[in-house]
Write a structure and sequence with these properties.
Layout (H helix, E strand, L loop, with lengths): L1 E4 L10 E4 L9 E11 L1 H7 L16 E9 L11 E4 L14 E5 L3 E3 L6 H5 L2 H10 L19 E5 L4 H12 L3 E6 L2 H10 L3 E4 L5 H8 L4 E6 L2 H11 E9 L12 H7 L2 E4 L7 H16 L13 E5 L3 H9 L5 E5 L2
Parallel strand pairs: 8-9, 8-11, 9-10, 11-12, 12-13, 14-15
Antiparallel strand pairs: 1-2, 3-4, 3-6, 3-15, 4-5, 5-7
């Protein structure tokens, strides 16, 4: 089978296309014929050494993917064979990600994909959608899992609504009944965020961002889904409602964060860091279930019609795919394996 591997950390050039034996599933595992592999920022960061790597060990990159189960291991219901599925965290603490024609995974890490959902959508769930779900469900009082009406009456601010996590957060929050505000940096990204379903879009380069947000949310926002906590700290303090929650899932703009203590204390606000790989098991299960329900309802989509343009690359051009994500491509980068 075709597989992409790297044996040392570095730029996209360290990856190569090789031929590998087709793996067999063990007890409690399934084998998935991968149709699409999704590329996330954590994939190229891992390739560059963010999580360490033993030189000489072959690593297949990419956490997310979608395909069809074609074999099951001992203890797995045979009915799984032939099912369309999406995959999450394939390469987390494992040497086998989704950038290969077949991948073997524990059954827990494959999720049924409805017939109406494309493999492009399935490969674009994983890290972005599960992260967005976690960010939207860590406020005091929950909800633990999103469903229609779960965020009714609440206002959510999504920083960077044109990104993959931002796009998923907009769609999930709107599906759950929230009023959704998002910030963007250009007219192009404003159009994408509106297409994704944001009720209000603020270009933070075009005026007083805090005033614009307060104009549509005079009592403040209940939840902030934050991609750039350092640069946006002052803004977030200015727009959070009393007892609000800010969920930080990335460090765009740098690692340094300075916060004023007293305004946060008097507001009883919560700042919560989110790393989807290491969230509690129950929270991960809730996220998988909530995202699956949104997909079944047709509430999560990808493509231009959903504000998330798709960029397809054949497996032979995986280096170009990784480079596109590393260089900040707007939309979702996918690798085709069939």
């Amino acid at each position: 089978m075709k597989a992409i591997v790297y044996r040392s950390t570095g730029g996209p050039e360290v990856m190569e296309l090789v031929d590998r034996p087709i793996p067999e599933p063990g007890p409690g595992e399934v084998r998935v014929r991968v149709r699409m592999s999704g590329v996330n920022p954590t994939d190229w960061k891992a390739r560059r050494g963010s999580r360490g790597h033993t030189d000489g060990v072959e690593q297949v990159p990419n956490q997310d993917g979608a395909g069809v189960v074609d074999a099951v291991g001992e203890g797995v219901d045979a009915a799984w064979a032939g099912r369309r599925v999406w995959i999450w965290e394939a390469a987390w603490q494992r040497a086998d990600g989704t950038a290969q024609e077949y991948v073997v995974l524990p059954l827990r890490q494959v999720v049924p994909l409805p017939d109406h959902a494309s493999f492009e959508l399935g490969a674009g769930l994983g890290i972005p959608a599960l992260t967005a779900h976690r960010c939207l469900t860590i406020a005091e009082g929950g909800p633990e899992q999103l469903r229609p009406g779960a965020l009714a009456g609440r206002t959510v601010l999504v920083a960077g609504g044109a990104g993959a996590v931002g796009n998923a957060a907009i769609q999930l929050a709107r599906w759950a009944g929230a009023t959704v505000i998002t910030t963007v940096s250009s007219a192009e990204k404003e159009a994408l965020a509106r297409t994704a379903g944001a009720h209000h879009v603020v270009n933070y380069r075009a005026g007083d961002t805090a005033a614009a947000i307060r104009a549509v949310a005079p009592d403040g926002v209940d939840v902030v889904v934050e991609v750039a906590p350092g640069p946006n700290a002052e803004l977030d303090v200015a727009v959070l409602a009393p007892n609000g929650t800010l969920a930080v899932y990335a460090n765009d703009g740098g690692d340094t964060l300075t916060l004023p203590v007293l305004p946060l204390m008097f507001g009883n606000v919560r700042w919560q860091a989110v790393m989807i790989y290491t969230v509690p098991t129950a929270a991960k299960d809730h996220a998988v279930a909530g995202v699956s329900a949104a997909v079944a309802d047709g509430a999560l989509q990808v493509g231009e019609q959903a504000g998330l343009p798709l960029h397809h690359f054949p497996v032979e051009r995986v280096a170009d795919a990784h480079a596109a994500v590393e260089q900040g491509a707007v939309g979702k980068v996918l690798i085709e394996l069939t």
